[in-house]
Design brief:
single chain, alpha+beta, Nuclear Transport Factor 2, Chain: A, 2 domains, five-stranded antiparallel sheet, 6 helices, 12 strands, 23% helix
Length: 332
């Protein structure tokens, strides 16, 4: 009898536990058992292959020979499905030959998981046909080449096998340039004459060495906390002079030394003697009365960097000589 009582007790304890667990589950409702954790950005990514497909299509779309337009349809057939391969351009309507000189991605817009609008900006040279009447009289001359620029939206559909074009592209007007610029993000304009003199001298020396590919000289201008490039290829353009310099104090960072941004316009020349103006932005810091470069906006690979020269080996002064060009501060 005692054994049966023990068995019955165990049975009722077990049933009581089941009842309690069921009551708790009922009170809690449905529970999520599986949880997916996504690390990083889960925004959809438009791959380079899709962008390349759109650029290739735009290039073939705007390329034809006036004497053999049908060949264009053959090329476009590799991109389209369910739409005519002429893409609306009839051979009788052609007024000249067209050759693409450049095609680049301007923007992308993911409409849904299967449709993407890719905006491509295309530059092309158009060679118009000679006047037909003059050609009949053997008096025709070759018209000058006309340069054209077009923003074209390429509608890309993502099929199981890859991207495809299922409808005509569309042209959009030249993109509007910005007009209202918030100058408050530029920092505080520096008017201190001594700092302007030092900024002018540093920008002139640093950028001259940069264009000349003089990496050993550049090491003297970098801050101790920055690695300077071990080698720099010499520019195809010759550095001539500083044209204009403006200096801005960057917003203060808690616990960090003040930094400044030097915006320098410099004159450079090609090997044909063509003058151009380049704008450089140097992030600099000041230590012991001297300015040192933190960055010139160009990302350097670790393989091409070496530690900057210790301060004890740096030139004693950055004060410009009498031959230094005059300083012109920006009024922007």
């Amino acid at each position: 009898m005692a054994g049966k009582k023990i068995i019955r007790s165990i049975f009722w304890v077990f049933m009581s536990l089941l009842f309690i667990k069921g009551a708790i589950s009922f009170a809690q409702g449905n529970r999520t058992i599986n949880q997916t954790i996504i690390n990083g950005n889960d925004a959809p990514v438009i791959t380079d292959s899709i962008k390349g497909f759109a650029v290739d299509f735009a290039t073939e779309y705007f390329t034809w020979d006036a004497n053999y337009v049908a060949e264009r349809s053959t090329r476009l057939s590799n991109f389209v499905k369910g739409v005519d391969t002429e893409m609306g351009l009839k051979s009788l309507d052609v007024k000249g030959s067209s050759k693409v000189t450049s095609a680049e991605i301007y923007s992308t817009n993911l409409l849904d998981p299967d449709h993407i609008d890719v905006t491509v900006v295309v530059w092309r040279d158009v060679q118009p046909l000679p006047d037909q009447l003059e050609a009949a009289q053997a008096k025709a001359t070759t018209p000058p080449v006309v340069k054209k620029k077009t923003y074209m939206i390429v509608p890309v559909t993502l099929a199981a096998e890859g991207p495809v074009i299922q409808e005509y592209p569309r042209f959009v007007s030249n993109q509007q340039k910005g007009d209202t610029v918030d100058s408050s993000t530029n920092g505080t304009t520096v008017g201190d004459e001594d700092l302007l003199q030092k900024s002018n001298a540093l920008a002139d020396s640093f950028l001259r060495s940069w264009y000349e590919g003089n990496a050993s000289q550049l090491r003297y201008f970098y801050a101790e906390t920055v690695k300077s490039p071990n080698t720099i290829p010499k520019s195809d353009y010759t550095y001539e002079a500083i044209d204009k310099v403006a200096v801005y104090k960057n917003p203060a960072q808690a616990g960090q030394a003040d930094t400044y941004r030097i915006e320098a316009n410099v004159i450079v020349e090609s090997d044909l003697g063509e003058p151009f103006t380049n704008t450089w932005k140097l992030q600099v810091t000041q230590k012991d009365g001297r300015l040192y470069v933190l960055s010139n906006g160009i990302q350097l690979s670790e393989a091409s960097e070496v530690p900057a020269v210790p301060e004890s080996l740096s030139p004693a002064s950055e004060t410009p000589s009498e031959s230094s060009p005059p300083i012109t501060t920006s009024t922007d």
